[in-house]
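Quick entry, no commentary yet.
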Amino acid sequence: MGGGDFSFFFLRARSIRDHRYKLGYTLENGSFILDKDEFSGEKNCLCTCYQEYELIEYLKKYLNLYDFEVISSENINMKNQVCIKDSDIIIYGKIC
């Protein structure tokens, strides 16, 4: 891989270490509706969290991701005097 025809790729997704992970009604595909999230401002939103290896395999399989870097981002935010743990997987690379 790595010929002349490619596009740059960037993605930021939630990891399973995020406080929102499984904080609600679970759907068949592993996603969930955040019906129990009173603090992040995302109540009733659709959420999917990934393990790093799982997300990378999806991107390789469906978008031909290559020549990529992975960054883990862990942050604590305050919302209404409650600590909210944000955990993201950041991937940038090339797809063809």
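second:
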Amino acid sequence: MNEPLQYFAPSTPRRTATAPVPRPDRQFYAQTHAFGRFGIRWFDPRIMASEHFHGHIEINWLTSGSMDYVIDGRPLRIPAERLVLFWAGIPHQTTGLDPGAGTDSRQCNVYLPLDSFLHMPNLGPLTATMMGGGVVMLPTETIGEDTLRRWYQDYRSGDAERTDILKQEIALMLRRAAVTGWDTLMEPWIESVGASTRTASPLRYVVAMIRHILENLDEPLRAEDVARVVGLHPNYALNLFSDVMRVPLHKFVVRMRLIRARALLFEGNLSIENVAFESGFRALSQFYVQFRKAYGLTPRQMRAHYLR
């Protein structure tokens, strides 16, 4: 596994874009491109009028046929009945569809918020591959259509516990993939960037900054320190991060700290004060303000609600 795969065009002609169909999934996209909302949808595959990007790890599944993508200007064909994952923050576009011989193809998309994905434990090389711009396909036995439809019903149920179980199942699926391997459809191309790197694309710089933030989340993270990792002037680094991620760096840091705090609260072993400290908040009052603003509950209320 982890070897690049090639998919060749079938003999039947493929559809090309004529009249783009409006996308019904805009509710999954947040106002910022950094953090999308969690969502699942089933729909008829559609050709996209233009490339777009949003704050998710996107998971695609086709019931039959195949689909042509262009991701960051590179062509790619996605086959049926396999889960395909990529970082949707990189511009991408559906350019061609083949529904299969005499069948009506359906597509299932899982939109996994980027910040939630980055905090999933023990993904190691899978996280590096996604943030490196790679596209991976999980083994055939990973999942079937029945499970995807059950996930969709859990998502649409409005039941918070069913949704939480669903997200845990996705996290466990990805954790297993990180251990057992995957097929590589597109090799990662965003290389690590250090202070000694002379030239790098904006995306490479931002990925390096994100990596540094996640590895040092419990430490003070000044703009000067983050910029030094990639050898940039702090003002330029901050502007670059905001331009690429569509969210200021300090808000990204706060969001990642809040997600870590929420996870630590559910473990139930640490005091509220230690949860704040381990998540990188040095002032307890600031932690309470930011947490309630994000989740609508105080840390203590959330712990009591979910661990009762």
